């Protein structure tokens, strides 16, 4: 059935619709306002989640600080029992660049003034949790509910701050500031950039060429790598990056089943009881859709085996170089074996970087995820298996913003694919191939940001990018 992996590749496999995609160029760096002096007190943010949720929270905090004419204290990151990472802002991002780049927009300091540090913020009502803020809250919420606290206590501490700011309606310059933070102000620290440069060099078979996004991802390391490479270096290898969103947290939260029988069900239920107690409680009190119903609606994560079927049906050859981001796959190496049997040139960062090179990042999942972000964003083509993934959204948005119309992203419509996969045992490979290609081709069109959707994922909007035609 998988003999299609050796056919000639379709012409558009490694391409975006270039003409409409290249009509957009980055312009979130353009400013048209005076600097905010931050006179209305201080905003503390302790962001929760992994590196992707934290990044979004930081950008939202920047926007709220400007909205409230307040001073932002360098954000902190909450230690999570899921991620188990003690990394703080300066372990991942260049603190001085962040402060200096955003100085024309807002005032940023590294810590609270001495007279505010000793305050019991919870006792005086200055701690605001995610329970206190509705999801996708509008700017007027912050003006009405948060600004009075700043006037009274001079400080507000947002604890969590996940997904607590709407994408619409937002004033033009404030939305642009949010883009400016994500695409310009947040740069990885040299340690991550240097190791990221090694990763890219090896993904491209140690060739000296740099990709169009390297400068924005690895900074000066992109230039030094080019200088150090041999003038006789062979042509860089084209590679596909795949984000397999199939970690145990995703698998357990989905409430789907993946062929592991009773042992799998017990393992995932035990994980849910520890990490998703609210979901466990809902299961006991509410009739939820069955795993089969969830799968038919496209609500289950694609398994690594399904991802490989997808790539083969699209026409990627057996010799394709594939970089898999996020190697903590549920089911471990045995599940990855299905991928490597069809695509032997499949690698992870753990295969390309030595244990010595990876040692500074061990036990820091966010810093390891930053390396995956670099490897995925710089790829010649990027395939996501879950369009709702924050990681995939940030990667695809970065590729749109800086890619110049040359960085294709494969976004599956999981509902369409579910109906195709459910029939894959009863249809010919040729028919399966045609249906998969049609489903993916329909997601490849160039579109402006839909209303209320993420500017990080869809930066083609007047606040973030400018049209050249």
From TrEMBL:
Its main location: membrane. Pathway: Glycan metabolism. Transmembrane segments: none annotated. It is a single-pass membrane protein. It is found in: Membrane. One of its GO terms (molecular function) is glycosyltransferase activity. Keywords: Carbohydrate metabolism, Fucose metabolism, Glycoprotein, Glycosyltransferase, Membrane, Transferase, Transmembrane, Transmembrane helix. InterPro entries: FucosylTrfase_pln (IPR024709), GDP-Fuc_O-FucTrfase (IPR019378), GT106_glycosyltransferase (IPR052272). GO terms for biological process: fucose metabolic process. Belongs to the glycosyltransferase GT106 family. This is O-fucosyltransferase family protein.
């Amino acid at each position: 059935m998988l003999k299609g992996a050796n056919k000639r590749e379709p012409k558009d496999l490694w391409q975006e619709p270039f003409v409409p995609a290249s009509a957009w160029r980055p312009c979130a760096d353009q400013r048209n306002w005076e600097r905010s002096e931050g006179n209305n007190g201080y905003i503390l943010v302790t962001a929760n989640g992994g590196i992707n949720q934290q990044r979004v929270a930081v950008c939202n905090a920047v926007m709220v600080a400007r909205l409230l004419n307040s001073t932002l204290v360098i954000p902190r990151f909450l230690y999570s029992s899921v991620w188990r990472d003690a990394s703080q802002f300066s372990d991942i991002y260049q603190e001085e660049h962040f402060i200096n780049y955003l100085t024309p927009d807002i005032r940023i300091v590294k810590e609270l003034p001495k007279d505010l540090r000793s305050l019991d913020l919870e006792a005086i009502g200055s701690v605001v949790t995610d329970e206190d803020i509705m999801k996708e809250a509008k700017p007027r919420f912050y003006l009405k509910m948060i600004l009075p606290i700043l006037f009274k206590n001079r400080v507000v501490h947002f604890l969590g701050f996940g997904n607590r700011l709407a994408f619409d309606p937002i004033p033009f310059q404030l939305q642009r500031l949010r883009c400016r933070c994500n695409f310009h102000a947040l740069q990885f620290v040299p340690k991550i950039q240097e190791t990221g440069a090694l990763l890219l060099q090896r993904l491209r078979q140690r060739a000296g060429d740099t990709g169009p996004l390297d400068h924005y991802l690895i900074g000066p390391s992109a230039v030094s790598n080019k200088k150090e490479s041999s003038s006789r270096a062979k042509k860089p290898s084209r590679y596909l990056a795949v984000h397999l969103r199939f970690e145990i947290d995703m698998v357990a939260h989905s409430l789907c089943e993946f062929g592991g029988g009773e042992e799998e069900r017990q393992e995932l239920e035990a994980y849910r009881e520890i990490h998703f107690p609210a979901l466990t409680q809902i299961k006991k009190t509410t009739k939820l859709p069955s795993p089969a119903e969830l799968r038919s609606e496209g609500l289950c994560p694609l398994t690594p085996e399904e991802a490989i079927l997808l790539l083969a049906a699209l026409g990627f050859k057996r010799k394709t170089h594939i970089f898999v981001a996020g190697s903590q796959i549920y089911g471990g190496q045995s599940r990855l074996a299905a991928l490597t049997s069809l695509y032997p040139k499949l690698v992870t960062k753990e295969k390309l970087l030595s244990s010595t090179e990876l040692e500074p990042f061990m036990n820091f999942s966010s810093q390891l995820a930053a390396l995956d972000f670099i490897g995925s964003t710089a790829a010649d083509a990027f395939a996501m298996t879950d369009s709702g993934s924050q990681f995939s959204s940030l990667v695809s948005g970065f590729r749109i913003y800086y890619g110049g119309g040359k960085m294709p992203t494969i976004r599956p419509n999981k509902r369409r694919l579910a109906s195709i996969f459910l029939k894959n045992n009863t249809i010919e490979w040729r028919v399966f191939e045609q249906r998969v290609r049609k489903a993916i081709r329909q997601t490849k069109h160039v579109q402006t940001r839909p209303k209320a959707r993420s500017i990080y994922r869809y930066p083609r909007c007047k606040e973030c990018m400018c049209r050249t035609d």
